[in-house]
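Running log. JK asked me to keep both predictions on one page so they can be read side by side. First protein, sequence followed by its tokens:
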Amino acid sequence: MTATVPAIDALRLADAERCAELEKLLFPGDDPWSAPAFREELRAGHHYLAARDGDRLVGYAGLAFVAGPPFAEAEIHTIGVDPGYQRRGIGRELLRGLLAVADAERATVFLEVRTDNEAARRLYEDEGFTVVGLRKRYYRPSGADAHTMRREPAA
């Protein structure tokens, strides 16, 4: 690990294996995504970003549009940062990159976050999200609950 600030760019199909590796580290009890799942998301045309320290993928984030104008809506599908790179603002930069794409379409953005993930919930609140619902036993197989959060498009 270096002290450089990771660069943010587009996630590539070749990154799928590393994303799946990070998923296993980050979400071991909640059915982490596989490499084929990441490749499927990219092939479907969803918007995914990568954080790279040199050639090493250290973070990823994805957004999908679920409704178009005039009432555009998008969902944050996933955000993950290598544990060795957390608390450096990488997750925030990835999130802001996704939100810029959503804002360009004037989309309302939704996401789910574990109710016990205070750090993530604070990040989302800092970026304009509010809790709008509770999904009991949303995460599998752990059965953890999730808050549904929403952010209106930036003016």
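And the second, directly underneath as requested:
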Amino acid sequence: MGRRLPLRGLALALALSLALPAVVWLGYDDAPGAWVTLEIVAPLSVLTVLAGEWIARRRPGGLRRQFALVAGLGALALAAGVALFVWLMFLSSHDAVLTVLLAIYAAALVLWVTHRLGARALDDLDAVCTTLAAVGEGRRDVRVAPRGDDEITRVGQQVDEMIVRLDREERMRRELFAAVSHDLRTPITSLGLLATAIDDAIGDEATRREYAGRMNTHVRQLAALIDDLFDLTRLEARELTWTMERVAVHDLVSDAVEAMRPAAAAEAVDVHADLNGSVACSHGNPEQLSRVLFNLIQNAIHHTPPDGSVTVFVEDREQGVEVEVADTGAGIAAEQRERVFEPFFRGDASRRSPGAGLGLAISRAIVEAHGGSIWLEDATVGTRVRFRLPAQP
């Protein structure tokens, strides 16, 4: 029964139908007038509620027609109420004419305000629909640009934000495909040439062994690239699950610095740790956090000239434990700072360095998966990459 009849609307109509006669009775001590008022407003309010419920459920035509029906219903209820009061209350012709004129005046104003309000709202909806249709056709330069502070305006703002995100993601995807194609093309081309040379029996046995060794190197590069891509995809999709435990960040950094000393020595770069008396611990996976440190330190070594230095700082902060890897290299250009954590992005100073440009992107994904954050600090010399992990007592 509750699904067929608008019980709340009928309850409201009943309450109003009783409230108005009560005001007449108590305010003017007019029992007959209160009874006439009840006879007028009770059926009128019930019919208005039922008609409004029919419009709300059926939603005939477009929104413009629905607004028009609602406005017409309100004007009709007003006109009918006034006409019934004039007829049943036996007002003078002068009072009756004034009452009818006031009803027409009020109805005209209601219809005009409803028309203006509905037109503005529907124009905004049309702008949203037009913009979404253009986005569906592939355009990314369109915007709703809504004005106001209502729900439709907020929908338009969300649509504009969605278009910006979609444009950025599509641009990053195109750059990703281009970077993957570029990084795959070189080793695959080299593998093809080397395989052809071996197949054609070019050179002696030692030369063929050298070619085979080069082929193994290219295969390892391809395997590393594919593994990094797979790991990055799973990290960003939150599909990896790790065994989490209490991690002493002090010891983790010390071990990573010691492990990277031979690679730094080969580049004539000094790498050392400044633990700053840190004793904080975090909750995480030691292998993955070590991978972050290895990526950052190795990156810093590649970008530091001979006789330069790489320093790993550890600090206890109120927000958590922070680790920073600072080098004395060329640094990162200001216009490239916001993109260094994007997959395959390599700045001008990184064009000749090994790797596909996934190290910082993977590091960011791992840190964020641990509930932390990673960023670039301002540096007068070189580059400072800092990340924060939640501290655990």
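Observation for JK regarding the second prediction: The longest helix spans residues 151-199.
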